[in-house]
Amino acid sequence: MSETDPTDRVRIGAVRYLNSKPLIEGLPATIPGAELVLDVPSRLADDLAAGKLDVALIPSVEAFSDANYVAVSDACVATRGPVLSVKLYSRVHPGQIRTLALDEGSRTSAALVKILLEERYGVTPQVESLPLQATTRDTSADAVLLIGDRAIHPPEESFHTVWDLGTEWSTWTGLPFVFAMWVARRDRPGVELGKPLGAVRDRGLDVISDIARREGPQLGMSQPAALEYLTKNLHFHLGSAERNGLQLFRKLATRLGLVPDLGHTLFAPSPSRIASSPVTSAAATSH
After folding, report:
1. Do the beta carbons of residue 152 and residue 66 sit within 8 Å?
2. With 0-12 CB in 10 A as exposed, 13-18 as middle and 19+ as buried, what is 186?
3. Rounded CA separation 57/180 (Å)
4. Closest CA to 147 of 243, 23, 236, 19
5. Which of the residues 16, 27, 58, 280 could staple to 62 if both were Cys, CB 3.0 to 4.6 A apart?
C-alpha cells in the first residue's frame, strides 16, 4: 500500500461489546492495513484524545469535548426506544437518589443518566466509579448504572426502579439517542474513512444473523435473543433524527456543565455519506 494511502496503518478503535459487532465485521478486509483495537468506550476516548488512535467509535459525549473532533461516518450505535444494554438499577425512587455508582466503562451513559435525574427530578447525586468486574452488590450506592454486555443480564437482586435509558430518553424527548459514533481528529488520516466505515457497517448488517449466532452464546444469549437485540433495540445509521437527538443531548449536557461549550461544528463536509449538519444549530425542543 502506498505511503499516501489514507487507510495505510490507520489505527481504528472500537468497543468490545456486542452492539459494535455490525460496525466492525470484516473491517480488516475492507480497510487493508488498518489496525483494529478493541477496548471499553472510555479508554477508546482517552486513546483518541492522546493520539494513540486515528479514528474511534467513541461515546457521543466525548465528541463534544474537543473542537478538533469531527464525525466521519453515518455509521453509529443508536436506539429509538429500549436499548437493553444501558440500565439504571435504583434501590430507591429516582427522586431520592443521593449516591450513584457509574459503570467504569461509561461516559455517554453517565452523562445521560445525570441529565435525566437533574432535568426530571432535580437530583444531582454524588457519584462513584463501579469497576468493570464489580457487580451491583459491590456498592452500597442508591443506584447503579450498568452498560454493555453485562447490563443485558439482570443483577441477582431486586430494585425499586429499573430504567432502560433508551426508553427513558425516547419517551421524554421523542428523539433517538446516539450512544457512540466514529470520530477522528480533523488533522489525522481517519477523516478519510467515512465511506469505508459505512461499507463495513453495510456488510455487518448483511450478515447480522451470523453475528448473532456467533456472538450470542458467548454472552449467554440465544441466537434469536442476540438477533432481536441487534435488530430491534439498536440501529446503526446516523440520520437527521439522530443528529437532532445529538443536538439536544449536547445542549443539555452543556447546560449542566458536563461538556465544555466549545461551539465547534461536529459534522463537516466530507466524501463520506454522512450529511453535513452543524451540531451547534438550534437544538430540538421536543422534550
Report:
1. no
2. middle
3. 6
4. 19
5. 58
In 10 A of CB 95, how many CB atoms? 12
**How far is residue 196 CA from its own chain's centroid?**
20
DSSP state of 179: E
CA neighbor of 33 nearest in space, from 257, 196, 277: 196
Q: Where are the alpha helices (DSSP H) in 216-274?
A: 223-228, 240-255
Alpha-carbon distance of 243 to 282, in angstroms, equals 11
| 112 contacts 165 by C-beta, under 8 angstroms | yes
| φ and ψ at residue 258, rounded to 5 degrees | -85, -25
Longest dimension (CA), the chain: 60
Per DSSP, 78 falls in state: E
| Helices 240-255 and 108-121: angle between axes, nearest 10 degrees | 70
* DSSP sequence for 44-105: HHHHHHTTS-SEEEEEGGGGGS-TTEEEEEEEEEEESS--SSEEEEESS-GGG--EEEEETT
What are the pLDDT digits (tens) for 9-26?
789 999 888 999 999 999
Q: The pTM is what?
A: 0.86
> Which helix (H) or strand (E) covers residue 113, if one does?
helix 108-121
179: left (phi over 0), alpha (psi -120 to 50) or beta: alpha
